[in-house]
């Protein structure tokens, strides 16, 4: 047995459920009696075929993904997808973007290489990002190939708690940092993508869920390995997939299915617990004189909670005390400053309670 | 202690040194007392920064990589590089390719999306691939941006045991399946790349070693995440790198440095052992009436040894008996048929001896 592990608030790569790490360690030299580590298996052998098939089946079950959507296991993360999405879906024509934070800002910038980009809405003001412009006022071109949103901004802490109305234009969403933290109505999106390294598994795996009728229109210079139609036709085996990362993601999906909270099961339990965690933390921040969060209440992320100490001179003491208390990686992103607590699925309620206790204790000592 | 593990002859993903797997399992929940798994670390934190820096330093030491070469940790494998290389190095102009097997064939095919491709030589005949055309007879365009070779063909078992003369044209090599199996004169190449999943680590990591003066000429539609200049300027952190795969690769590099064989150390020891392993296996095949290998003697791969049973009706019995003897994944690639023994760095001499014993025993029973 290891001693109590510290709580890891990293924005990603991020905490993995301890049970998953224990299982991975136990199976490292011999997966299910086959005499090989998962890392050592041919991706085309029966063992790995069963691993990836189970992972896809579990993902489909948890998110209730309709049959007419392909599930792709890719590489490069959301930053690569910033190019891969327009390479596959823009047809070199018009694509509209909503900017609600640093990530959607990067997405629209990269897309300009491939198509005619229009900003349907932008939430940037002199405080940075922290709100979502009124959906009804978005300027959406009816002939756009898609409308792109980032439904949870990891850096800025802005989360969509509604499915945007895209007025019939196919809706594409970067869900990197909240996919599998809550239920999603997949059928309302044309394409959902995300890097795995928040709620799903290790860095190096990207999930893409895309409606099959949109495939087959990649631009001529799209690399074959990133052509959704090619990847789908080859069941994510056109190039060698990141096998070990897929295995860990599969263990995480199984872990999600086992979760229970407040009478709920699986993803519903995970979502309810995430809501409870977020309430606990935001309530503590709102009640404080020492800390502040600049986010509008209707778009506060359940996953990434940026906050500031009003007296920035206390930042170093805050972080040092946190680490000594077993609360790791709380420093905010350099573009926003201050602090950020990422409280993904693998963060237990007890971890958020420990953070709240520390916040209150620190305020008593320095407030 | 685990019992004796079977010998894994997979072409890749492939065997990882047992010591590495044991260390990875032991460190899974807590890397060096930091309280986190390597999977859970921010890629920008001090712990992972030290891991990637050490991996790069060890790679530079083992391959004696000159300072004017960048080392890039990328994603997508060699198949993605088939596009990424011309996107970065062709300038949309001329690029020459030598085809000596299935992989270089794929490379030249993909490159046609991006530039004017010319086949400098092709080794395909009615037997498939199994030789390297005389270097002096290659048709190399003097104004080609680069000449591309695959220095070890994983499927066909054709390995370059010399550095090709490219007549002043920058030489680009896919070394996926023999990088780190032997010394390389890096300075004679403009760019070397390879997927990690043969001799280096898990699938999902691609190594690129590229001369810095060639960077900065990516085509306009090159995704930023795959622009060598962008990746280099960001020390492989433009997008989140595959952190756990890099960690495992780092452990493998340390393992290579610890190797001793025949009075030699490190990569020289690994290379000498690989030569001894290859001799042992080819000598057994050459001495047999039951098995045959169709490869020219001067280009027989030390890493991937395709061979055939002259009586293909025995294939199933051969593979079943091998598995029962603890010799896994010997089935040949579907495009070549027969058998293939991949004997990468992590395959001990004892594993090859066990295979030879089985070959001889099987021949006695069925010859």
UniProtKB/TrEMBL annotation, chains A, B:
L-glutamate binds at residue 44. Pyridoxal 5'-phosphate binds at residues 103, 154, 174, 197, 239-240. Its EC number is 2.6.1.52. One of its GO terms (biological process) is L-serine biosynthetic process. It catalyses: 4-(phosphooxy)-L-threonine + 2-oxoglutarate = (R)-3-hydroxy-2-oxo-4-phosphooxybutanoate + L-glutamate; O-phospho-L-serine + 2-oxoglutarate = 3-phosphooxypyruvate + L-glutamate. Binds 1 pyridoxal phosphate per subunit. Catalyzes the reversible conversion of 3-phosphohydroxypyruvate to phosphoserine and of 3-hydroxy-2-oxo-4-phosphonooxybutanoate to phosphohydroxythreonine. Residues 7-355 form the Aminotransferase class V domain. It is an enzyme of class 2 (transferase). The modification N6-(pyridoxal phosphate)lysine is found at residue 198. Keywords: Amino-acid biosynthesis, Aminotransferase, Cytoplasm, Pyridoxal phosphate, Pyridoxine biosynthesis, Serine biosynthesis, Transferase. Homodimer. Its cofactor is pyridoxal 5'-phosphate. It is found in: Cytoplasm. GO terms for molecular function: O-phospho-L-serine:2-oxoglutarate aminotransferase activity; pyridoxal phosphate binding. Belongs to the class-V pyridoxal-phosphate-dependent aminotransferase family. SerC subfamily. Pfam families: Aminotran_5 (PF00266). NCBIfam families: PRK05355.1 (NF003764), serC_1 (TIGR01364). InterPro entries: Aminotrans_V_dom (IPR000192), Pser_aminoTfrase (IPR022278), PyrdxlP-dep_Trfase (IPR015424), PyrdxlP-dep_Trfase_major (IPR015421), PyrdxlP-dep_Trfase_small (IPR015422). The keyword Nucleotide-binding does not apply. This is Phosphoserine aminotransferase. GO terms for cellular component: cytoplasm. Pathway: Amino-acid biosynthesis; L-serine biosynthesis; L-serine from 3-phospho-D-glycerate: step 2/3; Cofactor biosynthesis; pyridoxine 5'-phosphate biosynthesis; pyridoxine 5'-phosphate from D-erythrose 4-phosphate: step 3/5. The keyword Cytoplasm applies.
């Amino acid at each position: 047995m290891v001693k109590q592990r510290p709580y890891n608030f990293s924005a990603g790569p991020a905490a993995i459920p301890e049970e998953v790490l224990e299982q991975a360690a136990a199976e490292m030299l011999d997966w299910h009696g086959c005499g090989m580590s998962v890392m050592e298996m041919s991706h085309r052998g029966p063992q790995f075929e069963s691993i990836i098939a189970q992972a896809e089946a579990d993902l489909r079950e948890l998110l209730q993904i309709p049959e007419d959507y392909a599930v792709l296991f890719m590489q490069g993360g959301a930053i690569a997808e910033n190019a891969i999405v327009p390479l596959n879906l823009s047809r070199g024509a018009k694509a509209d973007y909503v900017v609600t934070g640093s990530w959607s800002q990067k997405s629209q910038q990269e897309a300009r290489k491939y198509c005619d980009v229009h900003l349907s809405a932008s939430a940037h003001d002199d405080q940075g990002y922290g709100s979502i412009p009124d959906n009804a006022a978005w300027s959406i071109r009816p002939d756009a190939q898609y409308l792109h949103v980032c439904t949870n901004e990891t850096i800025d802490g802005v989360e969509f708690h509604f499915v945007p109305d895209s007025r019939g234009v196919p809706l594409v969403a970067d869900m990197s940092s909240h996919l599998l933290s809550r239920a999603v109505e997949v059928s309302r999106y044309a394409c959902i993508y995300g890097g795995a390294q928040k709620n799903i598994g290790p860095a190096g795996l990207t999930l893409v869920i895309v409606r099959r009728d949109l495939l087959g229109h990649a631009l001529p210079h799209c690399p074959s390995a990133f052509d959704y139609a090619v990847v789908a036709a080859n069941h994510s085996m056109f190039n060698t997939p990141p096998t070990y990362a897929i295995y860990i993601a599969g263990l995480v999906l199984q872990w999600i299915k086992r979760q229970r909270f407040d009478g709920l099961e699986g993803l519903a339990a995970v979502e309810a617990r995430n809501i409870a965690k977020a309430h606990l933390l935001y309530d503590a921040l709102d009640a404080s004189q020492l800390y502040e969060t600049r986010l509008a209440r209707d778009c506060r992320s359940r996953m990434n909670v940026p906050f500031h100490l009003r007296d920035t001179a206390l930042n170093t003491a805050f972080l040092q005390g946190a680490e000594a208390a077993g609360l790791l990686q709380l420093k905010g992103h350099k573009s926003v400053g201050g602090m950020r607590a990422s409280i993904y699925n693998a963060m237990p309620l007890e971890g958020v309670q420990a953070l709240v206790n520390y916040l209150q204790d620190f305020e008593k000592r320095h407030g």
